[in-house]
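Email to the structure team, subject: VWFA domain-containing protein model.

Hi all, the expression group asked for a predicted structure before they design truncation constructs. Nothing fancy, just the tokens so they can compare against earlier work. One-line instruction: predict VWFA domain-containing protein, return tokens.
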Amino acid sequence: MKSSLNLMAISLLLISIISCKQESDKGEKDTSSKNTVSENYNISILLDLSDRISLEKNPNPTMEYFQRDLGYIKSVSEAFTQHLKSKRIRQIDDKMQLFFNPEPLDPEINTTAKNLRIVMDKNNASKNLLNSINTNYTAQTSKIYNSAIKDNHFIGSDIWNFFDTKVKDQCIKNEYRNILIVLTDGYMYHENTVIAEGNRTTYITPEFVRKNKLNTKDWNKKLHEQDYGFIKIGESLPNLEILVLGINPGKNNPYEEKVLKAYWTKWFTEMKVNRFEIKNADLPSNMDQIIKNFILNKS
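Reply from the structure team: attached below.
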């Protein structure tokens, strides 16, 4: 009888050990899956090809604004490739693409943009392809800017409409870390999307700031008490991280930079954007580490 009880106790102990190991293995698999998903990047770049890049209207002797954009894009592509090279081939499942809204009239620009949609996975990842991304991205985006400047017909950038109608479908993928880089001077306007709802609008321009007397020391009080800001889009974007680069306020209003950043901050907060940063126009060498830290580090 005693022997039978001992055998039964041993059997129960073995069952318990096996069961615990299975739970442990399951937990490890779940953790591994979550880690893999968080390491899959989906990076989008939204270009503002308005007259902010015009060499005639907005010249800058230190470095033209389109050249700064190219430097920022170079840092983004370098961060993307650095991320890819940190993974094993079988783990690679990452994307990077470039957008503008509306599409330029030049079909060559649109073709170039399509060529800049990179989809990397274990089936096409190779050392040669990884090493070619940075050079290719810099050369191809340079073509886009040069063509837009040469054409000298700036149709504006409809950023509000892009967020309202396209960002969810084009910039957010399930089971990816979704990052959107917006290159803009912080102003927003397009003739096809001019909407006002009270003091909420789809645009902000230097003229709008002056007209509504947001160029005084009481701008912040007025913005909050009278509810100035961008009209909230219909979607919440909790699965998106946004880095805005190139804020370039007018030189005649010392408060304009704060007004622009307050507009964007209020807009992103109301959209429940997961994480965002808004940075001024600066030399690419000064922005390089900021860009890479945002992309490669989640905090």
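Residues 41-296 form a domain with the Rossmann fold fold (CATH 3.40.50). Residues 2-37 have pLDDT under 50 and may be disordered. Ping us if the truncation boundaries need rechecking.
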